[in-house]
Amino acid sequence: MRLLRSLLVVALALLLVPIGASPARADDSSVTGIALDPTGKPLPNVHWELYTWEGGEWTTLQFGPKLTDSEGRFTYDGVEVGGQYRICFSDSYYDVDFDASDGEQVTLWQPEVRHRDTCWRDADSHETAETWSPPADEPSATLPVTLPEQGFGMAAVNPFVVGTYLPGEPLTVVGQELWQPTNAAFRYQWMAQRDGSLAEPIPGATSATFIPTAELTGAWVFARVTASRPGYKPVTLPTPLSQVGTDRVPATAPLTVSGAAEPGSTLTASFGLPAGTRSELTWYVDGVPQPAATAYDSETSTFQVSAAHAGARIDARLRIHETDPEGNYDGGTDTFQRVQVQVAGSRPVEQLPEAPAPTGRAEAGRFLAAPTGLIADPEATARYQWLRDGAPIEGATASRYQVRRADEDKQLSVHLTISRPGWWTEHVTTSAATTVARTLQQGKVAVVGKARVGKRLTARTPGWGPRPVKVRYQWLRNGKLVRGATKARYQVRKVDRRKVLKVRVTVTKPGYPAVTKASKGRKIKR
Q1: Alpha carbon distance 340, 285 (integer Å)
Q2: First to last CA, the chain
Q3: Measured between alpha carbons, how far is 242 from 191 in angstroms, rounded to an integer?
Q4: pLDDT exceeds 80 at position 437
Q5: In 451-525, which ranges are E strands?
Q6: Partners of 381 in beta bridges
Q7: Are 87 and 33 a contacting pair, CB within 8 Å?
Q8: For a tag site, which of 163, 295, 425, 475 has the least CB within 10 Å?
């Protein structure tokens, strides 16, 4: 399968720019391109292309995949002094995330946000890009390119074709049902390429199923599958290709899958392998290849279903091809089959990194708000469960939570379950915790008594707790401190006439933060 994909990549590259001879290289010269998002963050796993002007046309480097590294960079050594070059980036890679994969487990590169294909400097294509020409005194350069956001990224997997490639027999694209979002719209274009020519669309061949005619005998045929949805960057991926009309040796028995499709069981794929042929049977889980289970030239293959596969669709994809007298691949003789089973249960949730702590004052009576912006998709919805010291708080399932007395000296956090329309996988995370400080129960502060010169005013402080509490007093005249007036009682003086008196109290208790509160003012008339 990988060989076919590589052949197709080369074929598609031919559609873009003709191949040209490589320029002469200078040993001490190079060009480095950097793909950046609008915030300046590097973009890894972005296709890059270095165009060179030769023979009156722009040519490309014929190798791949050409992807930026973890710093969003690529470097090409040996550019020619005085040569003409153009750099372009395309955020269109949907295959293996090599940094997150190993020989046993494959993870696909599926970023949440995708960026617009952009060339240096801020051009939409290599035809309109700016040309860089290395001068003799400074033959090396670093050229940053900012790629604007174009939309959300789809979770696309390699489409597959089932059929024999014989004239009159149908070929059908499968696997697109595993793309997310599941509510994307699909378009199909079947392509034909004959030796020495570019691939061209087959007129009218725009459905998932295509029946090749005798006129296509000898042509290499594949389909381009395009998914689109408002708010998302469209995706186009090719199917495997093979040659129409060449002799085929069908399987002596069709592909079947037996066994219980449930976690803990074993699935067995079986088929009949004809003499003089070779086979490759690859297992896929929701479209992601499982290389450890791939079987070559064997009529059976097994796959162990684990708890991580609950709710998933598992494919067994079979490719059979003939061999030449030396036992090598006989090009264009492929036949393809697929069997898919649905595993019982629900798909496991996907764990997000820890979310920030709730915002707000962590005090009794105050409100805390759950973190937001964990998923870029504005159509995403969240379910909430507030936690006290890691245990669910009954009924606390809103985005905001009013802190209670029972929360004091405890840690509050919130567990979020996030869903996106058209995505079968839910995302979960728990926020960092915030500790609720113990706070005094606030009571009243009032001034009672006749507001006249010579009379006595008294500060009353009912309702403060938990008792016992200590109360300190400070009387104020027109908002300014009255020196020495620090008792609960205050005798009105002549200087207070036509002024406003109030009392400010500070309530304290060991282990609690102090609280200061003032009474309403009392105006002294006479």
Answers
A1: 10
A2: 100
A3: 11
A4: yes
A5: 456-460, 470-477, 480-481, 489-491, 500-509, 512-518, 522-523
A6: 419
A7: yes
A8: 425
The two three-digit tokens of residue 331, written as one number: 């090009």
Instruction: Kindly state the DSSP code that residue 355 receives in the 8-state scheme.
Output: B
- The rounded radius of gyration (Å) of the Cα atoms in the chain is 36
Query: Per residue in 98-155, pLDDT tens?
Result: 888 776 778 899 999 999 999 999 999 999 999 999 999 999 999 999 999 999 999 9
The pair phi, psi for residue 12, each rounded to 5°, is -65, -35
Contact 163, 210 (CB under 8 A): no
Judging by DSSP bridges, how do beta strands 313-322 and 277-285 pair with one another?
A: antiparallel
Taking residue 127's Cβ as centre, other Cβ atoms within 10 Å add up to 10
Structural contact between residues 334 and 165, judged by C-beta atoms closer than 8 angstroms: yes
Inform me whether the pLDDT recorded for 95 exceeds 80.
yes
Dist. CA 10–CA 15, nearest whole Å: 9
Cβ-in-10-Å burial (0-12, 13-18, 19+) of 446 comes to middle
Give the model confidence (pLDDT) of 163-188 as tens digits: 999 999 999 999 999 999 999 999 99
The pLDDT value recorded for residue 10 is: 34
β-strands 427-430, 411-419 pairing: antiparallel
Q: Are 275 and 348 in contact, with CB atoms under 8 Å apart? A: no
**482/476 Cα distance (integer angstroms):** 5
Average pLDDT over residues 16-41: 70
Number of H helices, E strands in the chain: 1, 41
Integer Cα distance of 483 and 477 in angstroms: 10
Burial of 358 by CB count in 10 Å (0-12 exposed, 13-18 middle, 19+ buried)?
buried
Q: How far apart are CA 207 and CA 107, in angstroms?
A: 30
Digit-coded pLDDT (tens) for 449-498:
999 999 999 999 999 998 999 999 999 999 999 999 999 999 999 999 99
pLDDT(328) > 90: no
